[in-house]
Design goal:
Layout (H helix, E strand, L loop, with lengths): L4 H10 L4 E5 L5 E2 L14 E5 L3 E10 L8 E8 L4 E4 L1 E2 L11 E9 L2 E8 L1
Parallel strand pairs: 7-9
Antiparallel strand pairs: 1-2, 1-3, 4-5, 4-8, 5-6, 8-9
């Protein structure tokens, strides 16, 4: 029996790989991982390696209590036409802009792999 789609996705992240699922019949990529294609219920899905390239669709800057630094929460449109939520690292939260091109990076936080993005 294959692992649950979420577990499979997280295991790939731990290996440094960004995977997406794609429906074989329609060719549509989707996220988050599921056991079937959303909308159709088609169970013929496959895993594909994502390019990791995307564009910031929306961004919010969160201002926690000092001394914690502000951070961004961003919706990223991957080039594979999949939208996901993450953050953009490497620049000030206030510098993240809608339409900005970004590249995926996998980091480790609290002992777990985490998908973040960096500006390109």
């Amino acid at each position: 029996m294959s692992p649950h789609p979420e577990a499979h996705w997280r295991a790939a992240l731990a290996e440094g790989r960004l995977l997406l699922q794609r429906a074989r019949a329609s060719g549509t990529a989707f996220f988050p991982p599921r056991i079937m294609e959303p909308g159709t219920g088609d169970e013929e899905v496959e895993w594909i390696e994502a390019s990791g390239m995307g564009t910031v669709y929306a961004v919010t800057v969160v201002h926690p209590r000092p001394p914690a630094e502000p951070y961004d929460v961003a919706l990223i449109d991957l080039d594979e036409r999949v939208r996901l939520m993450s953050r953009v690292d490497g620049i000030a939260a206030e510098a993240v802009r809608i339409g900005q091109r970004v590249r995926a990076r996998i980091v480790e936080e609290e002992g777990q792999p985490l998908l973040v993005f960096e500006a390109v």
